[in-house]
Amino acid sequence: MFCLGLLALLYVRLLRDDLILVLGRVEKPPARRKHNALVLAKTSSEDVTWAYALKPHWKPYIYTSDKEPGYRPIPANKAREGMAYLTHIIEHYDYLADVTAFMHASATQWHNDVGDTASSSLLQNLSLDAVNKAGYANLRCEHRPGCPVAVRPFDPAMESNHNVVYRNFTSIYMDMFSVPREQVPTEIGGVCCGQFVLTRDRIRERPRDDYVRMRDWALATDMDTFAAGSVFEMLWHIIFLEQPVSCPDVQQCYCELYNICPEIDSGS
User: How far apart are CA 202 and CA 6, in angstroms?
Assistant: First the structure.
């Protein structure tokens, strides 16, 4: 009789343990849902309703340079979209989205070189797998303007250039990246025009303090907002740790980022 009771007790305990295991599987917290952020830099004249239509695939973070209610503020109207982009990174550094696209606010852009030039179409056709694999990608594929070389900082012609950006580019680069003159690249080139997409991990490869320093430079510079903004346009790819000259093959860019691939002649 004692043996039967012991067997019954063991059976109950086994049932209980199995139940705990099952419940343990059921009660595991769900996997974190991935999300993508869309950072826009707008003025009061720009309509951004198109961005909200992309939810839930893209969560918009819209910054305004004109102190409009309902939108996110920036510290100062300087460096064009650069101020909004850096502010977003600085303020969200510890909880960035898996993928973040940084774009101008207008619904269409001349430098959107896919389809109807609509920003929404660009994002809808974008391959997130390609972005996650690369870490960083300019949203434009065509090389002009910006490639193959946008500026040669040590070219003697730069010192006499009437453009304040080119004339002071070497010192600007040294200040922005906190590097000695010897670390300034001899050639810099990248696809324009201040629109790109990258992963959280790529953003965090650079410490937050670097982005703070770059924004502080923009806040302190005597350059007008257009000139300061053009500095960032030439440097975004370096800021996000691409090579100083970063001009991906155009056809490969279209094919990998947007699945617009050349037809392959299979022969007769």
Answer: 60
Helix, strand, coil shares of the chain as percentages rounded to 5? 45, 15, 40
> Which whole-number Å values give the CA distances from 214 to 64, 81, 83, 206, in the listed order?
19, 13, 9, 12
Partners of 100 in the β-ladder = 37, 198
Tell me how far apart the alpha carbons of residues 228 and 213 are, in angstroms, rounded to a whole number.
Answer: 14
Q: Report how far residue 60's alpha carbon sits from residue 39's, in angstroms, rounded to the nearest whole number.
A: 6
Q: Look at residue 163 in the predicted model and tell me its pLDDT.
A: 83
Pairwise CA distance, residues 143 & 147, whole Å: 5
Q: What three-state secondary structure class fits 253?
A: helix
Q: pLDDT averaged over consecutive 10-residue blocks of the chain (268 residues)?
A: 49 46 44 80 94 95 93 95 98 98 93 88 95 97 91 84 86 96 96 95 98 98 94 97 95 94 62
**Checking phi first, is residue 2 left (phi over 0); if not, alpha (psi -120 to 50) or beta?**
alpha
Assigned architecture for domain 36-149+190-258: Alpha-Beta Complex (3.90)
Tell me, what amino acid is at 219? L
What dihedral angle (degrees, nearest 10) is formed by the CA atoms of 113, 114, 116, 121?
-130
- Asked whether the beta carbons of 65 and 211 are under 8 A apart, the reply is no
Structure tokens at 31: 């996997």
Residue 10 pLDDT: 47
Q: Please give the structure tokens belonging to residue 177.
A: 């990246």
Beta bridge partners of 104: 41
Report the number of secondary-structure helices (H) and strands (E) in the chain. 12, 8
Inter-residue contact 59 to 37 (CB < 8 Å): yes
